């Protein structure tokens, strides 16, 4: 059952990356975020970084039972997720 949940989370993470790519390519933003987001490119990059970080988390926990997985993957996922979250926050601040 745990594997099914992790695979669903991985699909969600890939969906976040897809939304980020759509935001970079077309400037598309979710309807519920359109009022807050002032920089669509930065917002798209934030989605890509957050999605990649969340995907690294899921891969780490998917293979956590085997001995071959490294904690570097978990740290990389945390850093990517944090950078993506900061970028998504920066996208809502107005320019000076």
Arithmetic mean of pLDDT: 89
Low confidence ranges: none
Provide the helix percentage.
over 70%
Q: Can you tell me the overall shape?
A: elongated
The H-and-E topology, N to C, reads as: HHH
SSE-based structural type: mainly alpha
Supply Rg.
Answer: 15 Å
Note the beta-strand portion: under 5%
Amino- and carboxy-terminal Cα gap: 50 Å
Biggest beta sheet summary: none
* Tally of helical runs: 3
Number of strands: 0
Summarize the structure.
The protein is an all-alpha fold and 96 residues long.
Would you mind describing this structure in some detail?
The chain is an all-alpha fold and 96 residues long. The protein is built from three helices and no strands. Helix 2 runs antiparallel to helix 3. The longest helix has 25 residues. It is elongated. It starts with a helix and ends in a 6-residue tail after the last helix. The mean pLDDT is 89.
């Amino acid at each position: 059952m745990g594997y099914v949940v992790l695979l669903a989370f991985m699909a969600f993470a890939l969906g976040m990356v897809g939304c980020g790519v759509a935001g970079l390519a077309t400037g598309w933003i979710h309807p519920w975020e359109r009022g807050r987001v002032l920089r669509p490119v930065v917002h798209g990059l934030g989605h890509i970084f957050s999605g990649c970080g969340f995907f690294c988390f899921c891969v780490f926990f998917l293979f956590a039972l085997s001995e071959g997985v490294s904690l570097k993957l978990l740290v990389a996922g945390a850093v990517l997720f944090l950078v993506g979250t900061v970028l998504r926050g920066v996208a809502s601040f107005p320019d000076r």
